[in-house]
Design goal:
Order of helices and strands: HHHH
Largest sheet: none
Number of domains: 1
Strand content: under 5%
Helix content: 55-70%
Structural class: mainly alpha
Number of strands: 0
Number of helices: 4
Length: 123
């Protein structure tokens, strides 16, 4: 199990809390800052997600066989991560589209305000 930068090994309940907080921070673009603040590595998050998705963090007893996630669980986890990435891209695309619309409106207003013919230079 991975340890934080302070060398402590988090308990299962703490791992679940870290995962929830990290995923929440990622929604707001603060995943990296969360990891630095908590002294964690992204590889730990990846490992803990696998354990969570396999049900290990939800209360399997020590020494109980830890199975791999079922094909369905693994596919759900993969699709969940893919959805997060796609939603982030959609948000960025919508923001860019909104910005382009505002820029187009600004340029149209600016072109109406300027005279059609270039001004002649007075000497």
């Amino acid at each position: 199990m991975g340890r934080g930068l302070d060398g402590r090994l988090p308990r299962s309940s703490q791992k679940l809390e870290f995962l929830a907080a990290y995923e929440s921070a990622c929604e707001n673009g603060g995943g990296g800052a969360f990891l630095r603040r908590e002294g964690l590595y992204s590889s730990q998050i990846t490992e803990w997600r696998k354990l969570r998705d396999a049900g290990v963090l939800a209360g399997k007893k020590p020494g109980e066989p830890i199975g791999k996630p079922s094909a369905e669980q693994a596919e759900n986890a993969r699709l969940r991560r893919q959805l997060e990435v796609t939603q982030g891209r959609l948000e960025k695309t919508e923001a860019a589209s909104d910005l382009m619309g505002k820029l187009q409106a600004f340029l149209e207003d600016a072109s109406r305000d300027s005279p059609d013919e270039p001004r002649s230079k007075k000497r």
